[in-house]
Automatic annotation (TrEMBL), chain A:
Residues 114-144 form the Ubiquinone biosynthesis protein COQ9 HTH domain. GO terms for biological process: ubiquinone biosynthetic process. Belongs to the COQ9 family. It is found in: Mitochondrion. Homodimer. Heterodimer; two heterodimers of COQ7:COQ9 come together on the same side of the lipid pseudo-bilayer and form a curved tetramer with a hydrophobic surface suitable for membrane interaction. These two tetramers assemble into a soluble octamer with a pseudo-bilayer of lipids captured within. Interacts with COQ7; this interaction allows ubiquinone (CoQ) isoprene intermediates presentation to COQ7 and facilitates the COQ7-mediated hydroxylase step. This is Ubiquinone biosynthesis protein. It comes from Amphiprion ocellaris (Clown anemonefish). One of its GO terms (cellular component) is mitochondrial inner membrane.
TrEMBL record, chain B:
Residues 141-156 have a biased composition (Polar residues). This is 2-methoxy-6-polyprenyl-1,4-benzoquinol methylase, mitochondrial. GO terms for cellular component: extrinsic component of mitochondrial inner membrane. It comes from Amphiprion ocellaris. The keyword S-adenosyl-L-methionine applies. Its EC number is 2.1.1.201. Keywords: Membrane, Methyltransferase, Mitochondrion, Mitochondrion inner membrane, S-adenosyl-L-methionine, Transferase, Ubiquinone biosynthesis. GO terms for biological process: methylation. The gene is COQ5. It catalyses: a 2-methoxy-6-(all-trans-polyprenyl)benzene-1,4-diol + S-adenosyl-L-methionine = a 5-methoxy-2-methyl-3-(all-trans-polyprenyl)benzene-1,4-diol + S-adenosyl-L-homocysteine + H(+). It holds the Pfam family Ubie_methyltran.
Length: 322, 326
């Protein structure tokens, strides 16, 4: 019964979906809402989650209501009213219009929010950075590869800053993935745990290597990050990256060490980045040896600090005894 | 004789009475103005002869289009001078702000609806020309010894097909005539076209333009939602809709100064410079009948635009709305 209901639903949907290009963009909101609702139904029928679809195949309105709730977290915040249950699909996060959809070729595509579309444009823009630098022209070229007009760059109120921050966030998430993967390997016993100094060294090197494709234009990106309105965001990204590295290095300290460790690593990272900018050795060998030296310095400082501490204490004890 | 005198007196009393009550209640009427026409529509006798507002008057919709046409036919010759006089030259700042927010990339196609005398189109072409010059200078500076790729790029003629173009569309031939004369005197002709067309039914194919602008024109359109739908139709995916229009001033002090200036000074300036009191009375009344920033933003979103945002200029006297077709 359930399968024949689903079959019926998908059959109905196919009929509607078969003519998306014929849907006149000038048709009323209700019509559009229905078109989107139909696509949502198809989404449901295509998904391989029997429990949810069984409960939702009962009535059409509950179908998209539940699906709407399931993807609540991605809803664009700018849609004003979210109340009418009769036409919830119309308030859904936007969907690229039909001609753009035809270009991508898939009808059952997930709805995407404006933020997702923006991040797709920025990702596409990255390949034009060597040509145009970190600028609106690169974003315009990226938008055009996605089939959007260059006027859509107006969505990025921060201009080039948006592009650079997007790239930084992307690099950070890549780094976190790599570190998490390594951590899992160690947990499973498939890899040896590294010493802290080596771990830090490799993490910073991995992260800085992500800049190599854009190293020519990286000074421009750094100057954009230093603009006053970008400083809060760039500091946020930097501090979260340093925090991640220390977390995966095994740091669980809860005292002053938390701050000193992160401050030290921030210093190492920033200075190494600057050295990398004007490094012309093959495969940036000079940069990595600079990094080695800095980490060695920190290790030496830490061990000599410990020595001073331990040498201090015996005197104290003597003083107390006498 | 006595009867005609009585008629005249009655009409004078009615006019002055209407002026006083309506100007005083102008702001209060604004909130109900959007629902007004639809209520009138329900009560009107003939199906096709619905009524709408023409300034503070109520007229049928066909009548409104005709009267708006006549207004702009009358003011066309003195339009630019009046703009400068009424706004004390600030309208130039508003239009420049529109271009800055737009930030068009070279190769963009602009459709300026209700563009009349071509102010926006001229600024657009100038902006793009400066952008291209800046890009060329940057390219020349960075590559002192051009690589093989740069040389091959210079030889390629791809740029020709992507020249920026501005199309000025207006329903009023007189305004377009004035605009063409201005273009000739400025020596601007490349990439500029003049088209007669109705904003509610544009004579263009779908997905043609990168940017659609309508500056100080949309409040004269009888069916604003139709104009917005047409804008959505002719824009390419990713295209931008931008609308510059007089809007609601929130600050009470500024608002009272603005109201006094609008109703006392502007028709007088209109009479002195252009010899047309009534057209400028219509102008200031139509500003009061137009929906405020948030309502208009809602209308744009209803038409199907995304990332709709508005900027208040000069404290809300003018609002710049922007939306994207995604």
């Amino acid at each position: 019964k359930q399968s024949c209901l689903m079959g019926f639903a998908s059959h109905k949907v196919l009929k509607i979906v078969a003519a998306p290009s014929a849907v006149n963009p000038q048709c009323s909101n209700l019509n559009r809402g229905f078109h989107r609702a139909a696509l949502r139904l198809q989404d449901e029928s295509k998904s391989d989650k029997p429990p949810s679809s069984s409960s939702s195949s009962s009535s059409s309105s509950t179908t998209y209501h539940e699906h709407y709730q399931a993807t609540e977290h991605d809803t664009a915040a700018e849609a004003s009213q979210h109340d009418s249950a009769s036409d919830p699909a119309a308030e859904q996060p936007e969907r690229p219009n039909t001609s753009y959809q035809d270009q991508s070729g898939e009808h059952g595509e997930e709805y995407e929010t404006e933020e997702q579309l923006q991040s797709r444009i920025l990702t596409a823009a990255l390949e034009f950075v060597p040509l145009h630098g970190w600028s609106m022209e690169a974003i315009a070229a990226g938008a055009e590869t996605l089939g959007l007009s260059s006027a859509s760059t107006g969505m990025f109120y921060n201009g080039a800053g948006d592009l650079v921050l997007h790239f930084i966030a992307h690099c950070n998430s890549q780094l976190t993935e790599i570190l998490a993967e390594q951590h899992k390997q160690v947990q499973l016993g498939q890899a040896e745990p590294k010493k802290t100094a080596d771990f830090l060294r490799e993490a910073v090197e991995t992260r800085l290597r992500m800049y190599i494709p854009y190293i020519e234009t990286w000074p421009q990106a750094m100057s954009i990050l230093l603009l006053p309105h970008n400083i809060p965001d760039s500091l946020k990204h930097l501090s979260s990256m340093v925090d991640d590295i220390w977390y995966y290095a095994g740091d669980r300290s809860t005292d002053m060490n938390w701050y000193t460790k992160r401050a030290v690593l921030t210093g190492i990272y920033n200075t190494t980045e600057l050295v990398m900018l004007q490094d012309s050795s093959p495969d940036f060998q000079d940069t990595w040896s600079f990094l080695d030296n800095r980490i060695q310095d920190v290790v030496n400082m830490a061990s000599s600090a410990k020595q001073v501490e331990s040498r201090k204490n015996p005197n104290l004890i003597c003083g107390l005894e006498t | 004789m006595a009867a005609s005198m009585r008629l005249l007196v009655r009409r004078a009393v009615r006019l002055s009475h209407r002026n006083i009550t309506l100007t005083a209640a102008g702001a209060a009427a604004r909130s109900g103005c959007c629902r007004g026409p639809s209520v009138c529509r329900c009560f009107s006798d003939e199906a096709e002869d619905r009524s709408t507002h023409f300034g503070f008057e109520t007229v049928s919709e066909t009548e409104k289009a005709k009267r708006v046409y006549k207004v702009f036919e009358n003011v066309a010759q003195k339009y630019d001078i009046m703009n400068d006089a009424m706004s004390l030259g600030i309208h130039r700042v508003w239009k420049d702000a529109l271009l800055h927010v737009m930030h068009p990339q070279p190769g963009a196609q602009l459709l300026d609806v209700a563009g009349g005398t071509g102010d926006i189109a001229f600024r657009f072409l100038e902006y793009i020309r400066l952008q291209e010059e800046r890009q060329k200078r940057r390219a020349a500076r960075s590559s002192q010894t051009p690589s093989w790729q740069d040389i091959s790029n210079n030889y390629s003629t791809e740029d020709e097909s992507r020249e920026s173009r501005a199309v000025v569309c207006d329903i009023n031939k007189e305004m377009l005539k004035v605009g063409k004369q201005k273009a000739d005197s400025l020596g601007v002709s490349a990439g500029l076209s003049w088209v007669v067309g109705d904003a509610e039914e544009l004579p263009f194919d779908d997905d043609q333009f990168d940017i659609y602008t309508i500056a100080f024109g949309i409040r004269n359109v009888t069916h604003i939602d139709q104009a917005l739908q047409e804008a959505l139709r002719v824009l390419k995916p990713g295209g931008r809709f931008m609308c510059l229009e007089f809007s609601k001033v929130n600050n009470p002090i500024l608002s009272s100064i603005y109201d006094a200036y609008s109703f006392q000074m502007i028709p007088v300036i209109g009479e002195v410079i252009a010899g047309d009191w009534k057209s400028y009375q219509y102008l200031v009344e139509s500003i009061r009948k137009f929906p405020n920033q948030e309502e208009f933003k809602g209308m744009i979103e209803d038409a199907g635009f995304y990332c709709v945002k508005y900027y208040n200029l000069t404290g809300g006297v003018v609002a710049l709305h922007s939306g994207f077709k995604l």
